Amino acid sequence: MPVKSVAAVHRLRLVSGPEGLSFILLLICSVLKRTTSFNAVPVMGMVHGVLFVLYLVFLVLAHQARRWEPKRTLLLFVLSVLPTGGFFAERMLAKEERGESGAAAPATA
């Protein structure tokens, strides 16, 4: 497996957990904003936005480096917009990094 390919998956995996956590914290901040005087939505929204954009950039780079099927890339995108999806994406990507996944890059001649 080329180093570029491994690095792309590793970067995506590293940002997927924090992106998922920031989404959950943003939801909690939204509820607190409406039920208390605490308003951390502007700060948490910015943090989550930056992490989400990083996730999308790293997803595209990993898709190109690993030559994933569009279905796998779509699944990882859908996981990024679900509140706990980032954690599932991180697990999937960790398995792939360890070589336990059946979604390895196609063999090149």
List its salient traits.
mainly alpha, 4 helices, 109 residues
Structural notes for this entry:
The protein is an all-alpha fold and 109 residues long. 77% of the residues lie in helices and 0% in strands. It is elongated and about 50 Å long.
Q: Can you lay out the helices and strands and say which pair or pack?
A:
Layout: H1 3-35, H2 41-66, H3 70-80, H4 85-98
Helix pairs in contact: 1-2, 1-4, 2-3, 3-4
Class by SSE composition: mainly alpha
Report how far the terminal alpha carbons are from each other.
Answer: 13 Å
* Average predicted confidence as pLDDT: 89
Reported for the largest beta sheet, the result is:
none
Q: Report the principal-axis shape.
A: elongated
The share of residues in extended strands comes to under 5%
User: Given the structure, what is the number of helices?
Assistant: 4
Q: H/E element string? A: HHHH
Give Rg in angstroms: 16 Å
- How many runs of DSSP E, i.e. beta strands? 0
Helix proportion range: over 70%
Low-confidence stretches: none
Task: Provide a brief overview of the structure.
The chain has 109 residues and is mainly α.
